[in-house]
Structure formats: C-alpha cells, structure tokens
Amino acid sequence: SAASDVYKRQVIRVGNDERKLMDDMLETMYAANGIGLAAIQIGVPKRIIVMDLSKDKEKKPMFFVNPEINNKNKIHSIYEEGCLSVPNQFAEIERPSTCEVKYLDYNGNQKIIKAEGLLATCIQHEMDHLEGILFIDYLSKLKKSMILKKLSKNKPDRIVV
Ligand code: GNR
Ligand code: NI
After folding, report:
1. pLDDT reported for residue 127
2. Closest listed residue to residue 130, CA positions, set 60, 50, 35, 73
3. Burial class of residue 93 in the structure, from the number of CB atoms within 10 Å of its CB (0-12 exposed, 13-18 middle, 19+ buried)
4. Among residues 37, 48, 41, 38, which one has the least CA distance to residue 15?
5. Is 126 a catalytic residue?
6. CB-based contact 83:38 (threshold 8 Å)
7. Can you tell me the mean pLDDT for 130-156?
8. Given a cut of 80, is residue 156 above it in pLDDT?
9. Number of H-type helices and E-type strands within the chain
10. Element (H, E) at 9
C-alpha cells in the first residue's frame, strides 16, 4: 500500500551513510544549479531532501530527513516552478503560502520550522517528489501533455537534420 511504501522509505536513523548521501545530493544539486533535490531524483528511495535557497556566494544548505508537513495555509500563493526532473520547463503553480515542517536535521535532531515564501514552495515541491508527484501533475491535461511533448523533442540524442 501507499502507507507501507512511505514506512519503508522512512529513515530509521541518521547515521554516517545518510550524511554521506546528503553530501552527495547537495553536490549534485549545486552542480545542476538547483535549489532543492529529493533523494529519489538520484535514484535513492529514501525520505531525504536537501535545499539551498541562498542567492549569494555563501552557501546555506538545509537538510530534511523524514519531513512531515502540517498546518498548510488556506491562503495559496503562486510561483513559477521548474524541476531538474523536467528540464527547461517552467509553469506557475499554486500551493499553500505557508506551512510547518517537522523533520530530522543533518545530525538527526528533530526540528520544526515555519516555512513561507520560496521555502514553503520548495519544500512542498520536494515533498511531492517523495510521493512520486511532479509539478506538471498540477497542470491541465493539455499543458502537461504539451510539456511532455516538448521534453520528448528536446532529448539531446535527437538528431536534427
Ligand atoms: O531548482 C529548482 N528550482 C525550483 C524553483 C521553483 C520551485 C521549485 C524548485 S525546485 C527545483 C529543483 C528540483 O527539481 N527539485 O526537486
Ligand atoms: Ni523537482
């Protein structure tokens, strides 16, 4: 079931293997110029997310293990989203404007934060990855199929004569 799937992917303990994975994920994310990455995006089915929303040179990595979202705001906001799993495609997506996130940090300590703005949007985008949901799943069938069609045409191995 979906519930047991979630259970299986839970991280039992944040140990050195998990920290190594988070380091690798962060490196992958920076290399791809992303602001967030879920473990499943590098093929690891664990409930782990890394993010860095800092625009300046100084890195501000954030780590979320077994994240849970509560108290989603009834007020929604719209951001233009992109996704490393849907390269070069962007769309305006509406999500709760604020939420609370309960998670384990890099050291396995439990934390609760209030997220707003881009942080709220990004953590919800990444949480969706843990459930196999992409931002294009919120679009109309037409918009989604247009993006999927573009993606199929943009494959680098396509030979354009
Ligand atoms: O790099 C990313 N930018 C972004 C912009 C708006 C909303 C969400 C994101 S996440 C994305 C990286 C990614 O795909 N993470 O899963
Ligand atoms: Ni994504």
Report:
1. 97
2. 50
3. buried
4. 48
5. yes
6. no
7. 93
8. no
9. 4, 7
10. helix 2-9
- The residue type at 55: K
Residue 25, CB half-sphere, CA atoms under 13 Å: how many? 31
Percent of the chain with pLDDT over 90: 88
Residue written as tokens 């009834």? 74
Query: Ligand 1 in contact with 95 (CB < 6 A)?
Result: no
Interatomic CA distance for residues 21 and 84, integer angstroms: 18
Amino acid letter, 81: E
The dihedral built from the CA positions of residue 143, 85, 124 and 29, taken in this order, carries a sign that is negative
Which ligand neighbours the alpha carbon of 133 most closely?
Answer: 2
Range 143-150, long-range pairs (CB < 8 A, 24+ positions)? 143/91, 147/86, 147/89, 147/91, 150/89
pLDDT at 22: 98
Q: Whose CA is nearest to atom 7 of ligand 1?
A: 81
Amino acid at residue number 12:
I
- Active-site position among 80, 92, 116, 126: 126
Give tens-digit pLDDT for 19-46: 999 999 999 999 999 999 999 999 999 9
Structure tokens at 123: 């953590």
